[in-house]
Amino acid sequence: MVDLVALRDANAKRWSMAKPTRSCINVARSLISPAAKARYQSVAAQTGVPWFFIAVIHERESSQDWSASLAQGDPWDKVSVHVPVGRGPFKSWEEAAVDALVDCPPYAARNQDWSTGAMLTLLEQYNGLGYAARGLPSPYLWAGTDQYKSGKFTRDGFFSPAVVDQQLGCVSLLTSMMLQDPSIDIAPIPPQVEARRTPPSAPAPTPAPIAAFLQAILLFFKSFKRGK
User: What's the pTM value of the predicted model, to 2 decimals?
Assistant: First the structure.
């Protein structure tokens, strides 16, 4: 049995320390593109789930394939055969996404706590708590950061400790998205994003024209006296 409060705290701590180990700028750019963002925001408006939460699930479940369901990556126009099974068919990607968030575990649309640790734990629950049960950081969250080394469920119920997840995890995606889209509001901001968002130091003020003129006169008289 996984202690969700302890997992929330652990995920919040990892978020505050995580550093990227792989670039995901192009994937993140695709997730925040105006066309994609509009579709995610449409589902967000119907469910109350933040659009960027929906976006990273879409990438993890189907590499942002609009013909695949948000629930598990099966075609949304057919009855699903992977967990959650028996969903659909649906009329659109959006309809399938609403079903995944409202009527399928972990029922993200019912969530009331969108603090960083709670949000990350909900994402982890979306994929399953098998990693947490082993005391391991989930690659669903942490692949592509220094918080994850190896270990992956290669199929349902089969865990391989040596396999490295080649997909980008939700955290690496979110932090890259935040760098490119300041409207994404996740607090606290992770260190690498905070550093990139810090405005440059203001340049030293240049002397006002009169002050500069007086300074030039003083320098002239000093040099004149030295010449004598």
Answer: 0.82
